[in-house]
Amino acid sequence: MNNEDLYIAIGKTDHELLEKSEQVRNRRLTAYIRVLAAAAAVFLIISAVSALNLIRVSGDKMNGGAFVPTGNKAAEAKNDAVYDGNTADKEAGGVTAAAGNDAEIQTEAPALSPSDAEREEDLLQGVIPASTKSIMTSGRIALVSLASAGVLILTAVILFVNGRRGKRDKRSDL
Amino acid sequence: MEDQEIIALYFARNEQAIEESSRKYGRYCYAVADNILKNHEDSEECVSDTWLRSWQAIPPKRPSVLRMFFAEITRNLAFDRYRAERAKKRYDGEMPLVLDELAECVASGTDVEGEVLGQALSDCINAFLKKQKSRDAGIFLRRYFFTESVRDIADRFGITENHTSVILKRTREKLRRYLTEEGLMHE
Predict the structure, then answer these.
(1) pTM above 0.90, yes or no
(2) Is A144 part of a structural domain of the chain?
(3) H or E stretch covering A168
(4) Is ipTM > 0.95 here?
(5) Domain that holds residue A118
(6) B75 shares its domain with B123
């Protein structure tokens, strides 16, 4: 018996065993692709969380914007009611009370303005409101994460396609 | 086309069987031959001869794994060609290395059964491989059946080339001991 006899004998190996060895794909490549896919999944989750945060923050801001005028209107209505009451008091004959109520009206009116004034002042000074900052941050994180996930997925696809092409080239006609 | 349909075509003596076999497994068989011969024309001829041999073998044979049936025929044809032509042609690649490595298994062994090798040796190798770990048996077959390079095997199994070589060496040692225990070789 020599090495060639042994080689020929190995050639008669059970087909099931041979097929089993053929089933093993390129594990190193598969491992790389899995790591890339996992990293891409993490980035996608970060992106999704940031996008949800973005929607929530911008929703809050929109709701807040709508609430303030309504609040002002309510306050105005309250003031009107007070004024009407004062008018009624006035009509009832209380001159002093009327004067007092007028003073109250005058002092109550500017009570809503400081925040608006501050906001205007901030805007004039170029200070970005905290809510806008939050929206910008969330947006940036969402975009960067999405882009990163895209790059990773693209790399995994290129690796996969190259692996397949390499195998096909090896098996194809020269 | 499914393997069973291709086999049915062979049994029906329909020549489309060869066409379908070539379409589905032509590249695969070429790779098997090319691993041994590393020569385009010779590998092509081996693949063509494979379809002729298959046509002659089926029926009566009904292969359980058609791809491996073709692979076995192609390998045998390629090896026959390698042996016949190696005096005239210089074949590079893995084949000389594979034969050198296998020589380690039989280096100092003396042939006990003489001509009664053949199927007995094949049965013994089959039994040996079934006793090995799935990975080790796979690595052994990739190297000594498919004549793949150590690097390709390492990539396939996700281990280093050095580790692959160590596994191959240990498996050869085990095979050598096994053949001795089975009485197919004497120390």
Answers:
(1) no
(2) yes
(3) helix A130-171
(4) no
(5) 27-171
(6) no
